[in-house]
Amino acid sequence: MYRAGRRRGVDLLRLQPGDQVVDLGCGTGLNFALLQSKVSVGGLIVGIDRSAAMLRQARRRAERRGWKNVVLIQADATTLSPADVGARVAAAGGRELSDSALATYALSLMPEWERAWTNMRNLTKPAGRLCVVDMRRPTGPYALLTPLAVAACRLGGADIDAHPWTAVDRDCLGVEASSTRGGHLQVRAGTAPALRRVPGSEHPAR
Ligand SMILES: C[S@@+](CC[C@H](N)C(=O)[O-])C[C@H]1O[C@@H](n2cnc3c(N)ncnc32)[C@H](O)[C@@H]1O
């Protein structure tokens, strides 16, 4: 059900071999195989999640598959310091700023998802590509499944009415949109103009 959104999201990131990509709220690493197929061994995947248990599973997945190019960082996406995360990625052999960032089914779990969105932008180089994949109430014939979708989101702690992909529409250029499952899965990708960071502050001027 949800893999379709992941696949479309990764496709719309337009990754190239050698790229470095952030997977924000990476969970157990369900995006990693799709991302690996794009960035290949010369690239780097930076998985960020606040849950140590999720990251343990993500680490096991990377080890099982023999992926050496995965850096996992435990951090809260809404409060992390992009400079600190960048330094940790650089210390692990990557670059401070990534080429792209992706969040699949993660921002809707964060009441303060706008902060996570700002951090996604600050973890990415100017004109980097950003993608959000998330859920909303289905429409059309799929509307019959609304109670199921609402219950599944509630069970997983997601707010089905958060609509975090609207930030991509609002803030990015060259936005590409896709949806599936009667609109239940929404995918947006685009290029974010650079944020103007306030000197000495983690947070950019808006
Ligand atoms: C529904 S899972 C999705 C995982 C993965 N992106 C996927 O597509 O399978 C949501 C993930 O977001 C993480 N998460 C929730 N709130 C977070 C926060 N404030 N900072 C970082 N991670 C968070 C959870 O720990 C969980 O792993």
Automatic annotation (TrEMBL):
<keyword id="KW-0808">Transferase</keyword>
<protein>
    <submittedName>
        <fullName>Methyltransferase domain-containing protein</fullName>
    </submittedName>
</protein>
<dbReference type="InterPro" id="IPR025714">
    <property type="entry name" value="Methyltranfer_dom"/>
</dbReference>
<dbReference type="GO" id="GO:0008168">
    <property type="term" value="F:methyltransferase activity"/>
</dbReference>
<dbReference type="GO" id="GO:0032259">
    <property type="term" value="P:methylation"/>
</dbReference>
<dbReference type="Pfam" id="PF13847">
    <property type="entry name" value="Methyltransf_31"/>
</dbReference>
<dbReference type="InterPro" id="IPR029063">
    <property type="entry name" value="SAM-dependent_MTases_sf"/>
</dbReference>
<feature type="domain" description="Methyltransferase">
    <location>
        <begin position="17"/>
        <end position="136"/>
    </location>
</feature>
<keyword id="KW-0489">Methyltransferase</keyword>
